[in-house]
Design brief:
Length: 146
C-alpha cells in the first residue's frame, strides 16, 4: 500500500485560552476513529499515523461523544452503525456542540440509513463499506484541505 500524498506540518488553530466554549487548540491533523470493528480501527490508525496524523480511537458512539467533549479533533471518521450509541447520535452531538469538527462518515453496505439521508453540515464526505483505503486517505486529506 502506498501513501498517496504527504502534507507539510499544519499549524494548530489558536483559541482563546480562557474561553469555556472553545476548548483547547486543535490540530487539523488530529483524527478520531469511531468504529466498533477493532480490525478497521487498527488498519485506519496505522495508515493515518504513517501519514503524519495524530490518531485516537473509540469503539462506540457513547465513547466518541465523551471523547469529543474532552478533546477537539480536526476530523472524525465515523461508522454509523454501532452498538452503545450510534454514529447518528455522534453526528447530532457534533452538530450542536462541535459544529467546526469535520466528519468522514462510513456506512456498511447493508445498513440503514441511506447515505443520502445523512444531511448534517459537518459531514463532508460519505463512504460505503467496504471502502478502499486510498479513498479513505484521500477523503481525510480533502476534508482537512476544505
Amino acid at each position: 500500500m502506498s501513501v498517496l500524498r504527504r502534507h507539510g506540518d499544519v499549524t494548530a488553530a489558536s483559541y482563546p485560552p480562557d474561553s469555556e466554549d472553545t476548548g483547547p487548540a486543535v490540530s487539523p491533523k488530529s483524527v478520531l476513529i469511531v468504529d466498533d470493528d477493532a480490525s478497521i480501527r487498527t488498519m485506519v490508525r496505522a495508515l493515518l499515523q504513517h501519514d503524519g496524523f495524530e490518531v485516537d480511537e473509540v469503539d462506540s458512539g457513547n465513547d466518541a461523544i465523551a471523547r469529543i467533549r474532552k478533546q477537539h479533533y480536526g476530523v472524525v471518521i465515523l461508522d454509523i452503525m454501532m452498538g452503545r450509541g450510534s454514529g447518528e447520535d455522534v453526528l447530532r452531538t457534533l452538530a450542536v456542540e462541535r459544529p467546526d469538527v469535520k466528519c468522514v462518515v462510513v456506512i456498511s453496505a447493508t445498513s440503514q440509513p441511506n447515505l443520502d439521508k445523512i444531511e448534517v453540515s459537518n459531514v463532508m464526505i460519505k463512504l460505503r463499506k467496504p471502502f478502499d483505503i486510498a479513498d479513505l486517505l484521500n477523503a481525510v486529506h480533502n476534508v482537512i484541505d476544505h
